[in-house]
């Protein structure tokens, strides 16, 4: 029996999470597990209901669960809120309070989707990258921060700080992941300019000494942004700081055809959080258009990492693959001669394959 705190959040969050829960129901039925869902509020939904983006109750529920599934937070309705009352604060609060310093974002292309990428087939065919993003440090959390007024104009400040221990633990996560893959780590920084990056490079190199089998390389972030488009197949595991990882993981996502495909896991604390990489997409919310695959693939990561249910995880992943092979596509990945379906139908196809295979 597993307890999952479910935070649907805003925009398409409701739809994609709702469908991912159906997939968990299918897994429960097939393998005789029991998943208990505890619904909790965060983001704009929480602001509307109780006036804060991350209620204490939600955090308590997460801490008392075996895993957390999150949809997305944010939307135009709350864009003009003061910084501490923005929906995105919920996400940062969850990451920080649950100690989720390691964000794992795999970008693997499904062969059925080769033509959905905006890049040439020969460039993206075989792409299989994991971005390991530091998630609880860096400029997202550094102080001092804020806006002040000086000499008649506004001045805004953010601070980028990293400690050796913060870098060491994320580097270890990356090397451990690489050991189970192609044993290649590319550490991305801006060590030609930033002190934090210089410390990053020294620390990652030192951790690398313990992983002799892993080939470690270093790359400046601007070059990495370019190399991801030029020749993405050179990468296996990319490890980088919070903001570089935010940007590069969106870029890596597009290699796979759509950001609607990408799952993520945030690990490091007692309870892990799983969420699609995409946002709340308010423009298509409530229209049965969103691609539920990223959230369903996040559930597969939950089965694997939090519950150690390897076979169940593979089952979900192979069902996703089969549905794509069978030609079903949500609008974001549709190409000529494919079968267009909505959020609900896509998830139903995946569930029925899980129950049949
Ligand atoms: C992400 C998102 C978040 C981030 C936002 C919504 C706070 O872009 O998870 O990548 O910047 O980390
Ligand atoms: Mg992002």
Describe this structure in words.
The protein is globular and about 60 Å long. Helix 1 (13-31) links the parallel strand 1 and strand 2 (35-39). The longest helix has 19 residues, at 13-31. The protein folds into two domains: 1-101 and 268-357, Isopropylmalate Dehydrogenase (3-Layer(aba) Sandwich), CATH 3.40.718; 108-257, Isopropylmalate Dehydrogenase. The chain is built from twelve helices and 14 strands. The protein has helices at 13-31, 44-50, 56-63, 88-97, 121-124, 164-179, 195-208, 221-230, 242-255, 293-305, 310-325, 343-356, and strands spanning 2-9, 35-39, 67-72, 102-108, 128-134, 142-150, 153-159, 184-189, 215-220, 237-240, 263-267, 272-276, 328-329, 339-340. With 357 residues, the protein is α/β, with parallel strands linked by helices. Bound molecules: 3-isopropylmalic acid (IPM) and magnesium ion. 3-isopropylmalic acid (IPM) binds next to helix 4.
